[in-house]
């Protein structure tokens, strides 16, 4: 069963997550406000960030940095800056 939410990232109704994908309050916020489509966009950015900055997910500082980028991207409308990557023209 899919659930529809108002995705604050896409600014429209869209298919919500099936379950909470991220722990804690940030995870609740994502579950309630971020659609599957928006989450996929973030996952792409996250992979690029991890690769480019050679982040170690066992390192708490790296995880904190990634969470900050995620919140900025999903809730603050800030683009993720990735060295040497130019987003395609809209």
UniProtKB/TrEMBL annotation:
Molecular function, one GO term: iron ion binding
Top-level taxon of the source organism: Bacteria
GO cellular component entries: cytosol
Keywords: Iron
UniProt-listed GO biological process terms: cellular response to oxidative stress
Matches recorded under NCBIfam families: PRK05408.1 (NF003817)
Family note: Belongs to the Fe(2+)-trafficking protein family.
Job of this protein: Could be a mediator in iron transactions between iron acquisition and iron-requiring processes, such as synthesis and/or repair of Fe-S clusters in biosynthetic enzymes. Necessary to maintain high levels of aconitase under oxidative stress.
Assembly and interaction partners: Monomer.
UniProt protein name: Probable Fe(2+)-trafficking protein
Source organism of the structure: Izhakiella capsodis
Native organism taxonomy: Bacteria, Pseudomonadati, Pseudomonadota, Gammaproteobacteria, Enterobacterales
